[in-house]
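Morning. Coffee machine broken again, so started the prediction first thing and wrote up yesterday's gels while waiting. Chain of 173 residues, entered below exactly as on the submission form.
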Amino acid sequence: MLPGLSLVIGGAASGKSDFAESLVKGTGRSLVYLATAQAHDAEMRAKLKRHREQRGEGWRTIEEPLDVGRMLATISGDTAVLLDCLTMWLSNQILAEKPLEEAEAELMAGFALCPAPVVIVTNEVGMSVVPENALARQFRDAQGRLNQKVATKADLVVNVIAGLPQVLKGTLP
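Came back before lunch.
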């Protein structure tokens, strides 16, 4: 049985989204895909289209780039939620110049209020070179802190590398 809050973390193109999808599908519940990405250009529109096609039928998609906590609080308990991804959500907050502490508090409250199991996808961004500009360093540091905060609350934390899941906390269903 999938726990209330799961975190799937990994690098870019590591297989984390596919793994997270399999966890949510394995619940046998109605499927909700909570999308945080925004299609600002043709490449991103194509990527989002590919992801929708790969997911296939049976998913109710909710596009919410900023107010994820509020949206989670409205989800039905008979569903399972895939939040993809926390990294894009944080980018959206920074680019919208939202106060991060307030946004993170709302997000964490949404996790607590959601009666459905939630699987969160996020990127590990701290294993590379130090970014050359202040905005990128701010993002990297904020993402690292947010990942730690969510991992503390999560019952299951899985790191995916080269498509292979490594359980860091909890037990796979």
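The longest strand covers residues 5-10. Going to sketch it on the whiteboard this afternoon.
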